[in-house]
Amino acid sequence: MSSVQFGAALAKSVFDEIGPSGTVFLRMLFAALVLMAIWRPRLSGHSRRDVILVLLFALALAGMNGTFYAALDRIPLGVAVTFEFVGPLGVAVFGSRRRLDLVWVALAAAGILLLSDFGGADLDGLGVALALIAGAFWAAYILLSARVGQAFPGGGGLALAMMIAVVPLAPFGIAEGGSDLLVLGVLAVGFGVAMLSSAIPYTLELEALRRLPANVFGVLMSLEPALAATAGFIVLGEDLVAREIVAILLVVAASAGAARQATLAPRDV
Fold it and tell me: Which residues contact residue 248 at a Cβ distance below 8 angstroms, ignoring those fewer than 6 apart?
């Protein structure tokens, strides 16, 4: 979580040069190349179901990262991740059948309403919508990641999905970034973002989901909005007012509570 959020903060620092689409394109491309070199995955020997699973995982990765970076261009990092976290929260609630879940949903809703200042906050509406869409893709990513980890050894499935995900992102990234994508400094930042926000955390998450029940994973991940706000403050100087901090803490508490009560079965190592 620390790696991905400080990577996101670093990524936002080059938005002025290559835009969010160019940044996410470089991130995914470099991460895919590194993962492909490490794992050298093959599709041969896998069933049609496995191939479809990787394609869906790739679409989730492309959608999650593309829409999140577009949101990040419009709203602060901590705020963007808080709205995006509606996705993982939904996964946690869906995995449980307790009445207490309604409390967590209400708590999260209160946090989001407080974050938007009941419609009066100076937040970009499209940025908020993009963050919520990214959250839906994030939910799909969590569910598909566990299945890809079971179908492919090591990080092979992740590497294949990352490479495929580059394809739909490339036209937008090249069009927005243009010749600045070839500037040495921009390439260096892109490579750093790829390692911090994709190669390292996605590999760790894949291994974590092989060893942890999804509900335990969700509890641990519930700190993500708070870490995002911290990274935005340290790297980008994005200050948050007291109302926004309280809102983020409400979403963190709701996510932890919902995930802790989820009853999804543990997965085999």
Answer: 78, 79, 82, 111, 115, 225, 226, 229, 240
The one-letter amino acid code at 97 reads R
The Cα 230–Cα 249 span in angstroms is 12
112, 115, 116, 120 alpha-carbon torsion, rounded to 10°: 140
CA 267 to chain centre: 22
- The domain locations on the chain are 2-261
CB atoms within 10 A of CB 74: 18
Q: Count CA atoms closer than 13 A to 186's CA, side-chain side.
A: 19
Q: Dihedral sign for Cα 108, 2, 170, 127, please.
A: positive
CB atoms within 10 A of CB 242: 7
Contact, 24 vs 65, CB < 8 A?
A: yes
Residues 6+ apart with CB under 8 A from 105: 89, 93, 254, 258
Tell the residue number behind the tokens 């709203």, with chain if given: 75
pTM for this one?
Answer: 0.84
Q: Tens-digit pLDDT profile for the chain (269 aa)?
A: 899 999 999 999 999 999 999 999 999 999 999 999 988 888 777 889 999 999 999 999 999 999 999 999 999 998 898 889 888 777 777 766 677 777 877 888 788 778 766 555 577 889 999 999 999 998 898 889 878 888 888 788 989 999 999 999 999 999 999 999 999 999 999 999 999 998 899 888 878 877 877 666 766 777 788 889 999 999 999 988 888 888 888 888 887 787 676 554 433 33
For residues 125 and 79, give the distance between their C-alpha atoms in angstroms, rounded to a whole number: 12
